[in-house]
Amino acid sequence: MEVISKTGKINNSDERIFNFFSDFRNISKLIPPEVENWQAEQDWCSFTTKGQNIKLIIIDKEEFKTIKISGDDNSPYNFNLWIQLKQITAYETAVRLVVRADLNMIMRKAVKKPLQKGLDQMIDYMKMLPY
């Protein structure tokens, strides 16, 4: 299954946005209260939400263009999240999120619409961040 967010425009350079999201420690102050046990280093973070322990790892980066994130080996789901950046002008960058996940048909139907909504909301939120 593949879900692609809407494309958003962020008023900042691709370099600053890339550097911000390339280090999980930068998002520590953005974590909502329902997320517990937050821990982060540059290339990984772990947390608990809705009783489930999750660990995310940055598995690949292409400078100022893409950041690829995946769950660790203990993740119950096999998925990847790409943050894709394309500089438009010196202080305007297009951003898009892509999730690819191996899910059975029942899970696909259950999560596709909420995941699409969540990715689109993340794009809106990314526009407001102080890079």
Helix proportion = 10-25%
The total number of structural domains is 1
What do the pLDDT scores average to? 94
Taken from the alpha-carbon principal axes, the silhouette is: globular
Rg is 15 Å
Q: What do we call the CATH topology?
A: Alpha-D-Glucose-1,6-Bisphosphate, Chain A, domain 4
H/E order of the elements? EEHEEEEEEH
What is the architecture at the second tier of CATH?
2-Layer Sandwich
Number of beta strands: 8
Secondary structure tally, helices: 2
User: Could you list the spans in which at least 5 consecutive residues all have pLDDT below 50?
Assistant: none
Major pleated sheet: 8 strands, antiparallel
How are the secondary structure elements laid out?
Layout: E1 2-4, E2 8-10, H1 14-21, E3 36-40, E4 44-49, E5 52-62, E6 66-71, E7 78-89, E8 92-102, H2 105-128
Antiparallel strand pairs: 1-8, 2-8, 3-4, 4-5, 5-6, 6-7, 7-8
Architecture overview:
This protein is an alpha+beta fold and 131 residues long. The chain has one domain (2-128): Alpha-D-Glucose-1,6-Bisphosphate, Chain A, domain 4 (2-Layer Sandwich). 24% of the residues lie in helices and 44% in strands. It has two helices and eight strands; from the N terminus they run ββαββββββα. Strands 1, 2, 3, 4, 5, 6, 7 and 8 form an eight-stranded antiparallel sheet that branches. A hairpin with a 3-residue loop joins strand 5 (52-62) and strand 6. The longest helix has 24 residues, at 105-128. It is globular, with a radius of gyration of 15 Å. The model has no long low-confidence stretch (mean pLDDT 94).
